Every structure is written in C-alpha cells, then in structure tokens.
C-alpha cells in the first residue's frame, strides 16, 4: 500500500487542495513559502503519533472571508487516501492494517483516514452570536482565539469521513512516520547509548548474525536459545567484575557503613550493603559513537565532526531504527507495518555531491522495502537531478493560492510525447532545473539572451531577481518540450507565468527545392514568383496570444530577424555595441559614424568590401525597390547585418552585458576608469520591453 493523495482543507496556506503522491520517492519542490513544510506536517497530523494533534490559531487557513467566518466556524480537515500497491500480496499485513478504513473493496483497494479539528456542535450557537459583532477578519480571528479555540476537538476517522467512525489508535500505531526537520540537534539525539534511539538500534542488531540467520538453518527456538546463552555468559562475566569491585571496596565499605550505624540507619537489625548486576542492555549506556579513519591509528568522538557529516550518521541510524520498528520477529504485534520517512531540506547540511549520493541511497533503501514511502522537500537542484520527473511534485504559490504540478504527468503517452519527456529529463541537470524553483520563467534560445536579458530588464526599470524570474536557454527548436510542463490546459501542469523570447528567423526556399534556408529581412517576400517564405514566430505568437499563463514575444515585424540583429537595429547610433572581442571592429565603427552623420545608403554600401557575404548584402540592398523599405531602414539593415556577422555569441554577450551594467552605473567587474563609465542612451527592443512588463506583472 502507499499514500496516493492528500486532501487538505483549511490548513495553513492550503484552503482546499488535493495533492497526489507516488508509490515510493516523492521530491517536493517549490519556491519559499510554497507550502512544502506545511504539506509534511499535514501528513503527520494523521500518521505521526509523536506530534500534538491540537492546532493553534495560526494553523487555520486565512483564506476565508469575514462573511464565511460569521456563517460557519473554521475547521481543518486533512484526508489521506491509501491505495493498493502494484503487485501487492493481499495476504500481507497491509490489507489487514487498513481493512476497517476501506472505501473501495474491489482491487485495487482504497482506504481513507481523515483528521478533523473542529468546534463541537453545542458551541455553534455561542460562536454565531459572538462573531456577528465583528467588523473585520482580524477581530473575528481574535475572538475565535480567545473565546473558542480551547473548545476545539481533534478526531481521526477511518473510512468515509461522513460516517464519523473513529480510527482505532492501536492500528494507527502501525504507521512509523519519521520526520527530520531542517533544523535538528543530531548531537543531542545520537551520540551515546543513553539515547533511546541508539539504544534500541544497538539492542536490535546485537547478535545480529544469529537473528538474521536463515530459518531453514536455525529455527526460532534455536536462535532464542543461543542468544539467551550469550546473555547469560555476559551476565556471569559482569558478575565477576562486580565481585572485583566488592573486594576492592571491602575496607572502605566498613567506614561508609559505620556512619549508617551512628545515624541509626541500622535500626531493627537493618544492615545497609552494596550489591548489583549488569546486563548487556545496561552496558549500552557506556558506549559512545566515535569515528575512526582508515590507515590512521586515531579515533575522535562524533561530537567533534562537522554538522553535515553527523547528519548523515544520524539519518543512517534513523533508517536502522525504522528497520527495528518494522521487524515482527523482534517486536511481535507491536511491529510497524508502514514505515514512512520525511526529510526537510537535506541540502541544509550536505554539500552537492553528497546530496546526490544521499538521494540515490534513499531510493535503493526504498527498493529493498525497508522504508515504504519517502517524502523529501528541497530547494536543491542537485537533488532534483538525482530523481526522475515522475518523482517530482512542484508546489507553486501565486498570490496566496497554492497549486501542485506533476512534471512527469504532463507529457502525452505518444511516441512524440515520450520523446519530449526524455529530452526534458536529460535537460534538467543540476544547472538547469532552476526553472522548477523559480516563480516565473523567461525561456530564451541561447546563451546571449540568457546573459543579456537580465541587464536589459534593468534598462526597463525591472530587476528580474525581485520578481523571482529565471532566464533559461532551451534552444529555438525545443520550446514546446518545456512548455508542456507549464501549459495549464493540462491539469498536471505547473501554473507559472512563462515568457518565450523567440527569434523570427525568416527563411526562403525556391519553388523547386524541398528545404528552407535562412534569409535576411530585405530578402523576405521580394520574389514570390520563384520563392516561398516563412518565419518561425508569427504562428507561435498567434497561438498563445490568449493563453492564461504563456506568451511568445519576438521580432514580429518585417524588418526583424534575430536577437542580436534587433539590438543593433534599435541602437544603430551607439558604439556601446562595439565590444572588445567583436570582429570587423573598424568597419562597424565606420558604419556607425556614417550613420550618425546621416550619410546616404550608398556611402554605407561603399564602405563594405567585396567578399561573398558583403557582396550579397550590397546586391540585395542596391536592388531593393520595396517602397516599405525607407532609406533609414536600409542603413539600419546594413549595420545590423554586419553586426550579426561579426559577433560571437557567448563572449560578446558577456562583454556587452558588462558594458551595459557600467553604463547604468551598477557594480561590475569592469576595469575602473572604463570609457563607458559615462551613461549613454541605449534602446531596448520593443518586444523585450513588452515581455519584461508582462512577466513582471
């Protein structure tokens, strides 16, 4: 069996939510305050027997209007739906455990547990009378806290909650819910045998070679007899030590007991003395955890290790204890049936490589069925890279409204859909999965946009970090693969606001040819008798123009081509584009100077050389008679074409971003005294302005 879903109503930032789980590992991610910790605590309200079930006023969801508060006392209702696992043996203890809670009898069976924290019915009249005088929600919550919270009762029901059948507490004890919070004192919890957890683990694994022997080799009676003999032998040896102590303290004991005689403690022939015995269990308290180093003849106490290392040791002991708790031979009818491990932010104490290794270990542990279901909350891209898309649950908080997305479920069960899923799975490595954690996303085609868009946003008066926007390069051909994760027409999608900055990339092909090739805007549509034309942007913008959370933006005008081309079109009068690594620097500077002097198009063409690309540019502009192309448009196109042919994507983008940051007067790694320290005008392309405004709403 496994917990297949949780239904939460009125608890913290979950006004009413249903979240589905996997049979196995569940990695719950999301930005801060998305509800990850609250989700684990909601599970614990039902199956964690070590936490108080009574809630505080701040545990109620505040997404309730004053009118609703006056009409009905708020309550918290949390339900766990438990499903039959694939391949589960119906004769196992699982079905026996949930038999009284079944809501579906046929296979696969389904059971339900419901926690309810509510005001008793007899107090409803007083409640309504008291709340009618409240004029604000704040006043209402204060009245509830001061006058009614103490009357609230918590109950756990099994089966259909409307039947109000109380779940048997002894059966609930069959769940072993171990919750490791992000802030934990592992030194207090594990270093000596005086600690309950370590003592229990030691006692279980003592004589383990006997306990774990195959029943066909040693039956149960034989095992018990051997262990009993070892315990008797230990007690006999310990008795010898006690006798040695008695001998050593013989003279001293006479002096000690003489005081007893003088004080009258020997009244009525009572004679104080010393005696004792030590069992192996009592000796556990003398043990302490140490760390030895292979090849070095040294040991150190565990308390002297780093916090991250000790957390790993603690978690290993906890898993060992869960194995103890689930062993029926050791605990009999008190054994746990369903061990559940919940870990909050394991990355808090583990470096990236250890995070990855730790998740791999947890998955292997689950496969060996020592822990039946695992829940991990995280902000770590290393951890998300260690699991599959199917194991990720993404919580998203948009203006207080919590929703859950399931990246593994958004792809259609078709060859193309599964190919897209496989591509995204490979893509979401440790450097790319930040898209799952961000509040909003800008997908771009390549490295240049990834580097420059955050800086261009600053020129628009927006800092993308303030809006929790991630800029993610995915390649122009693969936008659709990633949009499947966020397309809210699919109920499993993550409802983040998404912008796609896509290049127009005009293309043409001869009527007799079967393939398209890239062309420039001044070629596009100029010879419709012999060529067919298309671009990569117009259809995308049209398809998503009314989408609830996704938009496409790009150079959607007849003069547009690519990101770099558009930057130059909008800044043909600015030498800020001329970076250190750019090629054809002298030519570009001359073209910019000719443009600044308002020289005619012929002068700019005259500056170009006679090489292949330059000759093609000169021929295309010289023969361009389309009246929609003004002389100004042609000059800008000449400069933008030569600029596009001169930039290297990554290096140029880094240098340009640096120059633009200096131009804004922002902190930078630029050399002090740079010529760009005086602010110059720089024009952000209109489509990028629109995209920044839309994503930052």
From TrEMBL:
Annotated ranges, domain OLD protein-like TOPRIM = 436-489
Q: Which organism is it from?
A: Pedobacter jeongneungensis
Q: Which UniProt keywords are present, listed alphabetically?
A: Endonuclease, Hydrolase, Nuclease
The molecular function terms of the Gene Ontology recorded here are: endonuclease activity
Please name the PANTHER family in this protein's record.
ATP/GTP PHOSPHATASE, ATP_GTP PHOSPHATASE
Occurrences of domain Endonuclease GajA/Old nuclease/RecF-like AAA (ranges): 1-383
Name of this chain's protein = ATP-dependent endonuclease
């Amino acid at each position: 069996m496994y917990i297949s879903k949780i239904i939460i109503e009125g608890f913290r930032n979950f006004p009413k939510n249903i979240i589905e789980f996997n049979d196995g590992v569940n990695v719950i991610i999301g930005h801060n305050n998305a509800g990850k910790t609250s989700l684990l605590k909601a599970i614990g309200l039902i199956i964690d027997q070590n936490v108080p079930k009574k809630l505080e006023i701040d545990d109620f969801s505040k997404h309730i209007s004053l009118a609703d508060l006056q009409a009905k006392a708020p309550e918290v209702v949390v339900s766990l739906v438990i499903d039959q696992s694939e391949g589960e043996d119906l004769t196992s203890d699982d079905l026996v455990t949930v038999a009284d809670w079944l809501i579906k009898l046929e296979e696969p069976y389904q059971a339900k547990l419901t926690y309810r924290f509510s005001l008793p019915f007899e107090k409803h009249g007083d409640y309504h009378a008291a709340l009618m005088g409240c004029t604000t929600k704040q006043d209402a919550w204060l009245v509830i806290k001061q006058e009614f919270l103490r009357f609230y009762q918590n109950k756990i029901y099994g089966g259909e909650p409307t039947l109000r059948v109380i779940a048997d507490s002894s059966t609930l004890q069959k769940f072993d819910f171990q919750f490791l919070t992000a802030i934990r004192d592992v030194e207090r919890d594990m270093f000596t045998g005086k600690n309950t957890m370590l003592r229990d683990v030691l006692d279980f694994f003592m004589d383990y070679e006997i306990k774990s022997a195959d029943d066909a080799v040693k039956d149960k009676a034989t095992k018990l007899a051997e262990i009993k003999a070892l315990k008797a032998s230990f007690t006999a040896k310990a008795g010898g030590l006690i006798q040695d102590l008695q001998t050593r303290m013989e003279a001293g004991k006479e002096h000690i007991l003489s005081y007893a005689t003088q004080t009258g403690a020997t009244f009525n022939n009572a004679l104080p003395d010393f005696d004792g015995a030590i069992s192996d269990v009592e000796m556990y308290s003398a043990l302490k955890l140490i760390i030895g180093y292979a090849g070095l003849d040294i040991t150190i106490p565990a308390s002297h290790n780093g916090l991250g290392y000790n957390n790993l040791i603690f978690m290993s002991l906890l898993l060992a204890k869960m194995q103890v708790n689930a062993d029926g031979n050791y605990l009999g009818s008190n054994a746990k049936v369903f061990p559940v491990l919940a870990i909050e932010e394991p990355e808090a104490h583990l470096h990236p490589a250890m995070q990855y290794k730790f998740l791999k270990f947890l998955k292997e542990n689950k496969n060996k069925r020592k822990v039946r279901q695992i829940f991990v909350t995280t902000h770590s891209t290393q951890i998300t890279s260690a699991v599959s898309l199917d194991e990720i649950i993404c919580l998203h908080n948009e203006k207080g409204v919590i929703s859950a997305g399931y990246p593994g479920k958004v792809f259609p069960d078709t060859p193309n859909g599964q190919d897209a899923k496989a591509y995204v799975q490979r893509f979401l490595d440790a450097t790319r999965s930040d898209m799952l954690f961000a509040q909003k996303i800008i997908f771009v085609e390549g490295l240049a946009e990834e580097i420059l868009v955050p800086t261009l946003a600053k020129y628009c008066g927006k800092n993308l970090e303030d809006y929790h926007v991630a800029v993610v390069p995915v390649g122009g051909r693969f936008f659709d693969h990633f949009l499947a994760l966020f397309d809210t027409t699919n109920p499993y999608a993550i409802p983040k606001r998404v912008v796609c900055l896509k290049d127009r990339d005009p293309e043409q092909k001869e009527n007799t040819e079967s393939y398209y090739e890239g062309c420039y805007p001044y070629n596009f549509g100029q010879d419709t008798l012999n060529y067919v034309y298309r671009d990569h942007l117009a259809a995308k913008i049209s398809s998503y123009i009314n989408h609830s959370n996704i938009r496409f933006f790009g150079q959607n005008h007849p003069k547009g081509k690519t990101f770099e081309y558009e930057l130059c079109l909008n800044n043909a009068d600015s030498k800020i584009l001329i970076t250190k690594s750019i090629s054809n620097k002298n030519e570009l500077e001359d073209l910019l100077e000719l443009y600044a002097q308002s020289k005619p198009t012929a002068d700019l063409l005259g500056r170009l050389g006679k090489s292949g690309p330059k000759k093609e540019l000169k021929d295309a502009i010289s023969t361009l008679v389309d009246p929609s192309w003004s002389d100004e448009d042609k000059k800008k196109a000449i400069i933008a074409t030569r600029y596009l042919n001169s930039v290297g994507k990554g290096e140029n983008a880094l240098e340009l971003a640096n120059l633009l940051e200096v131009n804004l007067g922002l902190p930078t790694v630029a050399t002090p005294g740079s010529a760009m320290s005086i602010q110059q005008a720089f024009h952000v392309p209109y489509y990028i302005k629109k995209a920044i405004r839309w994503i930052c709403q």
